[in-house]
User: Which sequence fits this backbone?
């Protein structure tokens, strides 16, 4: 097989009911792919949402978010790829 | 056996030293304290012997620090003690309230001195209210045992740790400067086997990390339940743990009562009074909480009057009156400021009371001196 | 877009948190109680991530302080404990000293650490306790409603500084990191901030470093974290970050103030000894004196009753140790004894006295205020004070080197010995008390001891002196010499003015 450099894809999942609408993530996102909504969640807060594309997996939103599980950053797993290389290069 | 060293279990110890020997033999793991006269020999002795046994001695930066170090070590499931005198106990009260609220065992020694304020370093019994009645904020009590000899200072350390562990609360060993400073012959008991770490303790080697210790209950009903639980515990202690020492009370018409050093003066006074043909006896509360209500009730059935002797403004006398439901006159003989009542003054007071046939209403007012 | 590709969690709810916050009352079980945008949440998340990553949840104890983070035990999946306001470092000390395996986190706010608990904090730092302190500095009391903190900036308005903090009234903000870094013991002190992603990542690094130090038992680490309280400061999150960046960081410069973990060895604490025999070998005194059998009784008549002895002089004359020697002689001959000193400042230079009671029975009152059988007086003021307590036919023994013969009735038996002079002659004033005992030996033999007891007194003294000074051979020797010198000096020459 030809060596192909895989471009990883990331995805931000925001739990509407765990967001308190502080906007720290929206302010922190370097790609401006998070926005504030106008609906209110079960706690009564407006909540942020991901526009659906453009996340680079930098985790700025995750570490800026004061809530434990409001933001999850998902990575497209590369199980089609051979597992020779690991993706450890954070920080 | 020329070269082999022979040990003896008998030695002369101050009360302050004896309580440390007792604690160590009772498996005490840690001592945290702050120097204060007349309790300092406790820290001196602990500083010498805890490290010799590889155990923890630390001079804290303050009384509040000491009691909170106690809280930490207790939460870790270790047998831990501290010691102080009235001024220091005042400062420790915050931590004692937390210990009580968090249901943590600990032993606190209070060698009472003169107050209020800086007072002096003479012996007094004026911490009775702040120690026996709770002392800090909240609906709590501590078990209080009141030794009157160096031997008891040693033995009660065992008892205090057992009570603390059994009921999960702070236990005071409360006595006065005389008992703390006095040297007497002590027979050392056998050491105990090391206690296992209790299952509620914060110790990952033995217990799950879900263990958590707090005294905060935000919901009013939860906190009320917590308080009810504590009161039930105190009721159980009241029912099971009262201890008193009676001396010639069976036919006594006048019963002298006092704790700590006073109880020994009372016995001498009883002997002198008996010699003079006056039917006197003495009743010594050994536990101050639980106050030995049952013994007082029993003795009140035959006694005509009580004389409460205190080195304070008259603090225990309230409990004496309550326990006998004021069914007999209770007189007060007290000294303050570091003075110890003389045996003569006790004898004289009893003579007066016996002579005046005063079995009816008490004319003695609270705070009145001999 | 998710239907075909498998996604895995790259960053998600840290494992150091409970999955569901069961301890938190109310309906909200996945969130913390903090206000929107609160700095505590960010720091909590980093800590929770760390304790899971370091695999130390089973031995980590998180101390919940008083302040907004008072409920932190709702959240962390590790051991938790509440501390009184400001006392977390003292509680931490107790936890880690009693069990050095514990990883103890003292999480504190600025009021808790910088105001009410500053002494506990700085002293724990100065002792180099092996704990990690995470100090959240948001410059305000959050939980109680926005009052001034020790770290509130000059001019900053709070509900208790409504006109702005005045440095002439409330002083300057407390620079905690700088103060801690100036101490010798702490190994790691860094101030970080939550004002930007970059700073948050530095905070994460600092917190993990503090954990590593604690795991390695290197000592005291502190991370001061400049954080926001948007609710009380009435800022949105952007304004909050700007305030931290432009105002707080200006006054509280970021950076590592100290990092010397590499230079320190891990802290070692001793293992406790609990083996019964070993405990006894250490605590039980070594028997030095031969003593007597358990049923031994001195036969002389004088020993049949309780005997009250008082010794008085000035502090430093050996008054208390003279009493101690007599008490020890009593112990070695199967008597019950009490020895009660006058204690306190008078021991340090003023007058000192002690009372000894020996008895075959239990001693009740240990106090001697009258009917004293033997009074030993070593200075003039004590003579005047205590002579009235001497019983009729009681014995007075005094140091005639310095004391004038007393004026008193013939119903007292009075002996004088130049104890200080003799002691000086044999080399030390400090053994004047043994000289006195030597003299006492002669008095006892001449008047009170019968049969075998006559010889036994000196032996009992020698045993007592060995018992009192078990390891000090030279002290024992000197006192024995003094005893016999005193004895020799007065033998046959004891003066009894009334005889």
Assistant:
């Amino acid at each position: 097989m030809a060596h192909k450099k895989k471009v990883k894809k990331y995805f931000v999942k925001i739990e509407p009911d765990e967001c308190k609408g502080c906007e720290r993530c929206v302010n922190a996102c370097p790609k401006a792919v998070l926005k504030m909504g106008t609906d209110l969640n079960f706690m009564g807060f407006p909540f942020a949402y991901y526009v659906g594309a453009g996340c680079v997996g930098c985790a700025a939103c995750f570490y800026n978010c004061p809530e434990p599980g409001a933001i999850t950053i998902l990575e497209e797993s590369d199980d089609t790829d051979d597992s020779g290389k690991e993706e450890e290069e954070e920080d | 056996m020329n070269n082999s060293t022979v040990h003896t279990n008998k030695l002369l110890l101050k009360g302050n030293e004896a309580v440390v020997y007792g604690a160590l033999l009772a498996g005490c793991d840690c001592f945290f304290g702050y120097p204060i006269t007349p309790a300092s020999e406790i820290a001196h002795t602990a500083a010498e012997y805890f490290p010799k046994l590889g155990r923890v001695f630390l001079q804290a930066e303050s009384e509040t620090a000491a009691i909170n170090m106690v809280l930490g070590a207790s939460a870790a499931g270790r047998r831990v003690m501290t010691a102080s005198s009235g001024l220091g106990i005042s400062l420790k009260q915050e931590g004692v309230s937390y210990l009580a609220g968090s249901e943590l065992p600990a032993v606190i020694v209070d060698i009472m001195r003169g107050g209020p304020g800086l007072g002096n370093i003479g012996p007094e019994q004026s911490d009775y209210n702040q120690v026996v009645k709770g002392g800090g904020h909240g609906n709590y009590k501590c078990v209080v045992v009141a030794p009157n000899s160096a031997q008891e200072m040693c033995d009660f350390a065992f008892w205090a740790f057992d009570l603390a562990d059994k009921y999960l609360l702070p236990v005071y060993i409360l006595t006065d400067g005389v008992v703390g400073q006095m040297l007497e012959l002590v027979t050392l008991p056998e050491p105990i086997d090391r206690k296992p770490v209790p299952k509620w303790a914060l110790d990952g080697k033995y217990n799950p990390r879900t263990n958590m210790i707090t005294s905060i209950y935000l919901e009013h009903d939860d906190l009320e339940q917590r308080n009810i639980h504590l009161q039930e515990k105190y009721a159980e202690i009241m029912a099971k743990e009262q201890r008193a020492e009676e001396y010639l009370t069976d036919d006594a018409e006048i019963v002298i009562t006092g704790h700590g050093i006073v109880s020994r003066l009372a016995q001498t006074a009883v002997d002198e009074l008996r010699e003079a043909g006056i039917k006197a006896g003495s009743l010594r509360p050994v536990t101050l909480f639980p106050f030995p209500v049952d013994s007082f009730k029993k003795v009140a059935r035959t006694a005509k009057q009580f004389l409460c002797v205190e080195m304070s403004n008259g603090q225990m006398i309230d409990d004496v009156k309550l326990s006998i439901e004021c069914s007999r006159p209770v007189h007060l003989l007290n000294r303050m400021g570091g003075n110890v009542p003389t045996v003569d003054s006790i004898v004289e007071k009893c003579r007066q009371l016996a002579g005046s046939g005063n079995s009816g209403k008490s004319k003695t007012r609270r705070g009145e001196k001999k | 877009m998710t239907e075909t590709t498998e996604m895995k969690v790259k960053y998600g709810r840290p494992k150091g948190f409970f999955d569901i916050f069961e301890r938190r009352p109310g309906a909200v079980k996945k969130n913390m109680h903090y206000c929107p945008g609160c700095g505590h949440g960010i720091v909590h998340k980093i800590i929770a991530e760390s304790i899971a990553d370091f695999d130390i949840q089973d031995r980590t104890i998180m101390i919940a302080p008083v302040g907004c983070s008072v409920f932190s035990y709702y959240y962390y999946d590790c051991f938790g404990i509440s501390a009184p306001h400001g006392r977390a470092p003292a509680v931490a000390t107790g936890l880690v000293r009693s069990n050095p395996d514990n990883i103890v986190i003292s999480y504190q706010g600025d009021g808790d650490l910088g105001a009410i608990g500053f002494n506990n904090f700085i002293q724990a730092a100065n002792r180099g306790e092996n704990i990690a302190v995470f100090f959240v500095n948001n410059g305000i009391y959050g939980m109680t409603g926005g009052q001034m903190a020790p770290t509130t900036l000059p001019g900053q308005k709070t509900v208790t500084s409504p006109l702005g903090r005045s440095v002439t009234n409330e002083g300057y903000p407390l620079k905690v990191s700088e103060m801690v870094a100036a101490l010798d013991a702490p190994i790691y002190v860094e101030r970080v901030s939550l004002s930007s992603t970059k700073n948050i990542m530095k905070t994460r690094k600092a917190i993990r470093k503090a954990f590593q130090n604690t795991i390695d038992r290197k000592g005291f680490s502190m991370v001061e974290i400049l954080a926001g309280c948007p609710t009380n400061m009435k800022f949105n999150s952007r304004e909050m970050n700007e305030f931290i960046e432009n105002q707080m960081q200006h006054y509280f410069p970021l950076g590592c103030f100290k990092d010397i973990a590499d230079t320190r060895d891990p802290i070692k604490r001793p293992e406790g000894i609990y083996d019964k025999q070993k405990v006894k070998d250490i605590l039980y005194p070594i028997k030095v004196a031969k003593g007597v059998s358990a049923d031994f009784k001195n036969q002389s008549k004088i020993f049949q009753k309780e005997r009250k002895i008082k010794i008085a002089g000035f502090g430093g004359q050996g008054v208390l140790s003279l009493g101690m020697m007599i008490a020890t002689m009593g112990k070695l001959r199967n008597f019950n004894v009490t020895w009660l000193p006058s204690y306190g400042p008078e021991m340090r230079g003023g007058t000192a006295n002690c009372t000894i009671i020996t008895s075959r029975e239990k001693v009740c009152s240990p106090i001697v205020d009258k009917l004293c059988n033997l009074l030993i007086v070593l200075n003039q003021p004590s003579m005047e004070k205590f002579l009235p307590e001497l019983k009729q036919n009681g014995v007075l023994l005094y140091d005639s080197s310095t004391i004038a013969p007393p004026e008193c009735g013939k119903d007292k038996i009075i002996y004088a010995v130049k104890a200080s002079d003799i002691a000086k002659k044999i080399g030390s004033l400090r053994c004047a008390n043994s000289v006195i005992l030597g003299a006492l030996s002669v008095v006892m033999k001449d008047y009170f001891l019968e049969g075998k007891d006559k010889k036994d007194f000196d032996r009992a003294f020698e045993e007592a002196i060995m018992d009192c000074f078990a390891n000090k051979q030279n002290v024992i020797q000197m006192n024995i010499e003094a005893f016999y010198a005193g004895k020799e000096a007065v033998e046959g020459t004891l003066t009894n003015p009334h005889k």
Helices of chain A lie at 24-28, 60-64.
